Amino acid sequence: MNFFYEHLSDRENFFFMADYHNCWVNSHFHKSYEFVYVISGRCEIFDNDKTSVIESGEIFCVPSFRIHFLKNKGDADILTLVFAENYFDGFVKDHGRKFFPAVLTDKDKNRPIYEYMRSFYDKNGTDGGASFMKKQIFVNTLLCMICDNYALEPIVISKHDQNICDILAYIDTHYSEKLSLNKLAEKFNYNPKYFSAYFNRLVGTNITGYINNTRFNNAKYLMENSDKSVSAIASECGFDSLATFYRVMKKYSEKAGISCNVKGERNE
User: Is the confidence at residue 183, as pLDDT, over 60?
Assistant: First the structure.
């Protein structure tokens, strides 16, 4: 599977809201919790090893550590809320390790939930404002509104744990450096052979594959959002040669089902 750990949203008190037109987010996971309301159109989602389509008026609910993606199918507008796990503490005290169904399908019940989310977003912006208490009240009220309308389900225990998240976060912030199995094993105090098996079991891919996928995602972003040369991007993303850069970009573009023509995109 081609996915990454989105660790930037896992800071304590993290809070993020935004509306998007034609949003496309590759497979990823995080410790934070996420709710996506589809304002208009349809979106393809992946959750808990299943791919499905949700439409206008439905809500996609993502618990901690759940691998997921969201891709628009044609024109679509969404409102997204992501908040750190410490906002969820009160809910856990009342309900234990339970969460909502992956998709909330009752559009009549969802409409007031969306209006509440929209009103808070319009008044307080992307970061929810400076007041932690206000954001905590908002999250608690939102969770209570959903609880009033939907039954809770046990959260499927994730294969990811804190150790592997620390490792993936390290890769995500040091991908431009020379990373290897032995270097990472030493960094996190593992025997290299055990570390390799541990990583494969929890992440579902080998260490080299994950590092290359991380470099691919960052290189793709730079190619689409900067004027840097291909050689500069390759170097910045940790590729030891242009030949390796081209090979990895081609391989992971094909895995993601997108075109890749990096050689012709910039003059060196």
Answer: yes
Ranges of beta strands (E only) in 58-215 are 59-62, 68-83, 98-99, 103-104, 153-154
d(CA 39, CA 51): 20
pTM of the predicted model, to two decimals? 0.78
Cα torsion 174, 178, 183, 184: sign: positive
For residues 229 and 16, is the Cβ–Cβ distance under 8 A?
no
Residues 118, 116: Cα–Cα separation, whole Å: 5
Indicate the SS3 state at residue 239: coil
CA–CA distance, 125 with 106 (Å, rounded to integer): 27
CA distance 226 to 249: 17
DSSP class of residue 115?
Answer: H
Asked if 8 and 26 count as a contact pair (C-beta separation under 8 A), the reply is no
Burial category of 250 from C-beta neighbours within 10 Å (exposed 0-12, middle 13-18, buried 19 and up): middle
Closest CA to 79 of 150, 142, 155: 142
**DSSP state for residue 158 in the 8-state scheme:** P
Of 38, 4, 34, 35, nearest to 20 by C-alpha is 38
Question: CB of 138 within 8 A of CB of 128?
Answer: yes
d(CA 216, CA 229): 15
Model confidence at 95: pLDDT above 60: yes
Higher pLDDT, 47 or 161: 47
Contacts of residues 117-125 at CB distance under 8 Å and 24 or more positions apart, as own/partner, are: 117/17, 117/35, 117/37, 117/79, 117/81, 117/142, 118/79, 120/17, 121/17, 121/18, 121/19, 121/79, 124/17, 125/17
* Cβ count near 132 (within 10 Å): 13
